[in-house]
Amino acid sequence: MTELLVLTTNSISAEPGMSQWMSMWGSLCGKSAVKLRSDTFDRNVFEGRISYSTIGRIRICKIEATPHRVLRAETSNLLADNRPYKIVIQISGTSTVEQSGRSVTLPPGEWTIYDAGKPYAIANPENVEQFVVIVPREVIASARFDLQLLVAQPFSARIGVGRLACGLVRVAFEEMSELHLQSTDDLADSLVRLFQQALLERSSQEINAPRTVLLCDRIKTYVENNLRDPNLSIGHLARDLNHSKRNLHRVFAPQGLTISGFIWKMRLESSQRALSAPGLSSRSITEIAYDCGFSSSAHFSRMFKQVVGISPREYRHRHLADAPAM
Of 207, 222, 257, which residue is a domain's last? Predict the structure, then answer.
């Protein structure tokens, strides 16, 4: 028989409750070098319950929790390639998932996917119930679609392949105690194939979008994935995306800034997240500058103050002083 396990915070005050909640998720998904920030929307008590079981190469969890939100501000470069993807299927309440510049609010009957190894934010402003399927990235990835273009997108659990995939998750969870170990690998493979098909269908719809829109998304994704490279430039983009510099500039023009301007904007935003992350408080400002792709700490400080209005050191001091307790 397949065992269904339960982790619960019981009913305890918010701060230790959220700390316990983060620890529970860490045990399910693998510890990260990046500390997650969390809070309970100023509520004094937090309650959470995770019922889960491992089926083949995936893990199915049922989440029941009071209002809370979680922020992963930085990528763990050491562990990012080993972190899983998470498929969130909304049962009750609403949840907002943000990643890669996109935001999706899930009502009951919808689902989405996000990369647990990259920055994200999840807000559950009301009591929430959902299934979360934890899938290793090498299992869900496919050469037929780019997962980074599909994270934080809305998918329906009421029609089409999405309905089949999410329905099978529910049935698998409800019948967990009756499943025999020898059948779980096949069940996991079936679930993954259904979700891959749903992702492929969305990817095909994206392909029918204007080519300029798709190329613009590819530019943004490329920049995000290579932000740490101090040599990142329009020349690298043109070479790796197989487009002329002129064409890339033309496609990106409607964004209201140049590609170089977008690169610096992303680097500054990444540095702001790092400077305000309590888990990175031991890293020097120079280290953070290099992590964000700046080749000179002096250049970083000048540009940061020019854009943000205060020095990186002052920015860190202000935001860490105001950071919620972990």
Answer: 207
SS (H, E, C) the chain: CCCCEEEECCCEEHHHHHHHHHHHHHHHHCCCCCCCEEECCCCCEECEEEEEEEECCEEEEEEEECCEEEEECCCCCCCHHHCCEEEEEEEECCEEEEECCEEEEECCCEEEEEECCCCEEEEECCCEEEEEEEECHHHHCCCCCCHHHCCCCCEECCCHHHHHHHHHHHHHHHCHHHCCHHHHHHHHHHHHHHHHHHHHHHHHHHHCCCHHHHHHHHHHHHHHHCCCCCCCCHHHHHHHHCCCHHHHHHHHHHHCCCHHHHHHHHHHHHHHHHHCCHHHCCCCHHHHHHHCCCCCHHHHHHHHHHHHCCCHHHHHHHHHHHCCCC
Residues 152, 298, single domain; the answer is no
Do residues 237 and 286 share a domain? yes
Domain boundary among 173, 207, 241: 207
If asked whether residues 17 and 142 sit together in one domain, one would say yes
Instruction: Say yes or no: 192 and 67 in one domain.
Output: yes
Q: Is the pTM of this model over 0.90?
A: no
pLDDT by position in tens, the chain (length 326) = 567 788 888 766 778 888 888 888 887 876 555 567 888 988 888 999 999 999 888 999 999 999 999 988 776 554 445 689 999 999 999 999 999 888 999 999 999 999 998 899 999 999 999 999 999 988 998 877 889 889 999 999 999 889 999 999 999 998 887 766 556 778 888 899 999 999 988 887 665 666 787 788 788 878 877 888 899 999 989 988 889 999 999 999 988 899 999 999 989 988 988 898 877 888 899 999 998 999 999 999 999 999 999 999 999 988 887 554 43
By residue range, what is the domain housing residue 312? 211-322
